Amino acid sequence: MAVWGSGALLGVVLVQVVTGWGSEVQIRTINDLVFAPVTLLTAALGLRLIVKGGLPRNERRAWILLEVAFAAQGAARMTSLVRDFQPGVPAYPSVSDCLYLAAIPFMVAGLVLLPADRRSQAERFKLLIDSLIIVAGACMALWYLEIGPILQIPGADPMVIAFSAAVPILDLLLVFALITLLLRRPKAGVAVGLLGAAMAVNVVADSTYTIAYLHFGVFFQPGSWPFLLWAAGAFLALLAVHHRMRQNAATSGERRSRGRFGWLPYGAVVLAYALIAFVARDQSMNPLGGMILGGIVITSLVIVRQMFAQRENRRLAVTDPLTGLSNRALIAELLSEMLRQPHRDDRHSAVLLIDLDRFKPINDVYGHEAGDAVLKAVATALRAVIRTGDTAGRLGGDEFAVLLPGMPTRAVAESIAQRLVEALRTPVIFGDLLLGVEASIGVAFLDETTADTAQVIAHADAAMYAVKRAGRGHYRVYTPELDTRARDAELRDAVENGELVLHFQPVVNLVGGDGIAVEALVRWNHPVRGLQMPGAFIELAEETGAIIPIGEWVLREACRQAVGWSTPTGEKVWLSVNVSARQVTQAGLVDTIREVLAETGFPADRLVLELTESVILQPDEQTVARLSTLREMGIGISVDDFGTGYAALSYLRTLPVSILKIDRSFVDGIDTDPDTYAVAEALVRLARAYRLHVVAEGIETAEQARCMAEMGCTFGQGYHFARPMPGPALADLLASGGVGSQMVAH
């Protein structure tokens, strides 16, 4: 209210300009009265900004200098107001005039020190040259219009001459500071823009006031339009300080002004030659006029050449040299511009991330020339499919991106993605070779929740890798379920929030015996998606490392529940728990298992750890040592899903394995297909040759159970005996004697 209220007082100046109301003394007094609150409030808010604004150190230094200028302007306005109530005509220059003049150097220093984009030494040198060109042009104009005529005023007091000439000279420095600031792309853009506008308006007002007096004999009194410009400048400075106070203490509102002020040096050259031509308008074309005309033509050609060179340099800087597509830098720049556009419900923008499938073998087998031919063909296909206004670029290697701004519907982006998939399936002819590639494409849409370029690229990348996992050669639109980082966090939170549950499935003795064994199987009771089977999240947990806390929870919870289970005859239960490859590589695995057994009281000699074949295929010395230590503790080691991976028979002898679990794929059909029966029997005989116990998974019929027992497999597991069930249900089943079987762990 104070800011806008004091600004409203400046409306009195507009009324004076329009109506001409009041005498000279009244106008001057009212003018100072309405200016005083604005300048004093600007100084007060500037002080508050420095003291409590939380400014970064480099920006705070600049605002301290600006505050000195604001304080000097406030003091000048108060001095002028006091002088209005004293009789007589004030001398020139007065104290207030000197204070106004003293404020300008501090204003210049503050503007120059305001933080902006980081630049290299070469860029800073170019910036200095551009700024000096502009200032040189402005200097010529001010010399001709102000400084020169001031120095030639006959009979004037030298003090008056010096002071009068100092005003345009300091204004010239202010122009230099403003131009430098604009070309440097300042941070905290809105506040700096308002401050720059205030200084620009003041320079225009100063120059108008002086030029009118020197060249036209017009002396503007308070209440005339130059004073309206000074009022506007004072209010803009107040708004600048006020806006900076309301910004985040960092650099909120940062904006880039790429190329917006690049024409200024050339404009200054044009201004300089126009001024020379104006001054020499009375000269003959021979010789002076012709020389000026020739200089203008030559300089114009140099400017055209320079602009063309800059344009070509820009093109080379943002173009991939092999394909001619946009490079990573331009894609990032255009994507940032897309993100800055306001969101509209009737317009949809998207990013397509494209990765070529089976490209590396082409490079390895046929050489880089063949690979380059494929990349050029991909670029041609991209250009042929995308619309006018879309952008295709190469990010590097065999990875491409397409930006689709302002589409009427999301279906348009999907149709473009599908056409790209089909176009990129076209074989590439290279000499006598026919090279075939496909592409996996991830699509991410920009909406009001998209934070930055990194996020949207990550979304498209997640969708693209989901395509690769699903078989490659098609496209997929990003959904939150594909966000690996988000789902990883969700998985880890599931452990903390108690969303994981265990089900248990019995393992029975096919030939009769004592005791009982069960396998612990984890489920995710998702609050939104319901009960999730392991296939929905275990692979992701393996990729992200969330399997470590999940595996530890499963082991602890399974031991806690199973420690009290027994059959009616008092026989204890064997417990089988899956252990991932990532867990086995953890140095603290043995200590973790010891801690869990000690905490739950579950006996080590009734625990079996099930490992996948990926663990035993390439065991290092540390892995072998850990497994051996666990085996010495009495814990059984089982190989799960044996036969589904690559054969690793030699490791069955070197590793401390005690049990093989034959995958369900070898059990299915043994009761109807003699060949399947023979393969399963061979696996059982192989395990027995290594003195390993054998468990057959996936037994679903009594005939399959009979066949496995007949070929020498002692233990079986599957829906024929019991489905996985919660712990309390299995405990009741055990207590009732519904399951009675034996699994020997060593």
TrEMBL record:
<protein>
    <recommendedName>
        <fullName>Diguanylate cyclase</fullName>
    </recommendedName>
</protein>
<feature type="transmembrane region" description="Helical">
    <location>
        <begin position="286"/>
        <end position="304"/>
    </location>
</feature>
<feature type="transmembrane region" description="Helical">
    <location>
        <begin position="99"/>
        <end position="116"/>
    </location>
</feature>
<keyword id="KW-1133">Transmembrane helix</keyword>
<feature type="transmembrane region" description="Helical">
    <location>
        <begin position="159"/>
        <end position="183"/>
    </location>
</feature>
<feature type="transmembrane region" description="Helical">
    <location>
        <begin position="190"/>
        <end position="212"/>
    </location>
</feature>
<dbReference type="InterPro" id="IPR029787">
    <property type="entry name" value="Nucleotide_cyclase"/>
</dbReference>
<dbReference type="InterPro" id="IPR043128">
    <property type="entry name" value="Rev_trsase/Diguanyl_cyclase"/>
</dbReference>
<dbReference type="Pfam" id="PF00563">
    <property type="entry name" value="EAL"/>
</dbReference>
<feature type="transmembrane region" description="Helical">
    <location>
        <begin position="30"/>
        <end position="50"/>
    </location>
</feature>
<dbReference type="InterPro" id="IPR000160">
    <property type="entry name" value="GGDEF_dom"/>
</dbReference>
<dbReference type="InterPro" id="IPR035919">
    <property type="entry name" value="EAL_sf"/>
</dbReference>
<keyword id="KW-0812">Transmembrane</keyword>
<keyword id="KW-0472">Membrane</keyword>
<feature type="transmembrane region" description="Helical">
    <location>
        <begin position="62"/>
        <end position="79"/>
    </location>
</feature>
<feature type="transmembrane region" description="Helical">
    <location>
        <begin position="261"/>
        <end position="280"/>
    </location>
</feature>
<dbReference type="InterPro" id="IPR052155">
    <property type="entry name" value="Biofilm_reg_signaling"/>
</dbReference>
<feature type="transmembrane region" description="Helical">
    <location>
        <begin position="128"/>
        <end position="147"/>
    </location>
</feature>
<feature type="domain" description="GGDEF">
    <location>
        <begin position="347"/>
        <end position="480"/>
    </location>
</feature>
<dbReference type="Pfam" id="PF00990">
    <property type="entry name" value="GGDEF"/>
</dbReference>
<dbReference type="InterPro" id="IPR001633">
    <property type="entry name" value="EAL_dom"/>
</dbReference>
<feature type="transmembrane region" description="Helical">
    <location>
        <begin position="224"/>
        <end position="241"/>
    </location>
</feature>
<feature type="domain" description="EAL">
    <location>
        <begin position="484"/>
        <end position="738"/>
    </location>
</feature>
